[in-house]
Design a protein that fits this description.
The chain is mainly alpha-helical. The chain contains 10 helices and no strands.
Amino acid sequence: MDLIGQLAGTLGIEATQAQALAGTVMQAVQRSAADEDAEKLKEAVPEMDGWTAQAQRAVSNSESGLSGLLGAAAGALGGQQAKDIATIATVLGQFGVDPAKATMVAPMILNFLKERLDAQLLNSLIAAAPILAQAAGGGAKPEAEAEAEDDGEFGVDDAIGALGSLFGKT
């Protein structure tokens, strides 16, 4: 699977921008994983170093001012998954892509990882990384149930909506 080509084609962005997105998600997964699993991930995806370097450049360019505050607020109010989605949405917004498309990125990464990793490592990463768990369907609720259960907490959908309205995409 050509992950970078798929991300670029689906989102209408350049390959270096797709690398930054892939790197952003892979950093989140690696950060959440146990040390041994993070090392195995790095071995299975050797191009990850280049992607994370692109991500670090993109995120450091967008971490100033409001975008940095949004990531911190999403992390504080909605947990690590919301912070990760906010970071992806911020990077997408920087590339001129609707931040609401942030939820499309993790499932593509998950499909890529399914091809590269053995089932045990993949399941371990899914369990450790909220962004992959959501992409794998973990914790997802049927729409009607989710609407009926508004607990008043700031969640991933709220983070995406807030980011989208800030970028003029609601």
